[in-house]
């Protein structure tokens, strides 16, 4: 499991390590005793208990058996999977193609009622027009050398966009003005995307804010992120996909969103910036 800079991921690793260490102590075993029962080096037991090395599912099974706590095996493996899922590198996430990566997020979208999205580099997927999505996913597929299932992945993302129109959900999107002016796919694709944003902004359950480019900002741009209710935050980084569930960290992103939202313009002022970007394309 990759080590993430997020304390959410690290705390999940640490909590699992502490539970395993407690099992060892409750069984009256030392780290050396456990290593001998499992056929490991003593250093391996120590690294696992101190969260320096993550255990595998087989390690957990052996650990529980050595401690006479087989009834806790599945719960501990579930905790391992949760910790692993907080940080997923792109190669692992997209190993079966882009379509599966798109479909995997659908349950999260279906159960969320309040969405907040901030983007400093690309139009958020939920409000992308189909040609823009195609251009973006084609670029990812070529850059990462993935299997070419772009058409299926685009269809999956378009299907996911149905949550915009189904059920009682609220969406707040913030984009930097630079997103309107530095796009992907060429002038025709960007023109269609900007027109799509104007249409999306008219939906009653959607708020679309544009953070204007200006030289005197007190809150600089941040990495793009999604907030799902107050349950989790997802961040797309260069190396992988980060999920944050620690309440204090989710609150930090909610606060950041509020600060950026205060800098944004909406309604007619936002449409004016979008129209200006359209005029620049022409």
Automatic annotation (TrEMBL):
This is XRE family transcriptional regulator. Pfam families: DUF5753 (PF19054), HTH_31 (PF13560). Coiled coil: none annotated. One of its GO terms (molecular function) is DNA binding. CDD domains: HTH_XRE. It comes from the Bacteria. Residues 19-74 form the HTH cro/C1-type domain. SMART domains: HTH_XRE (SM00530).
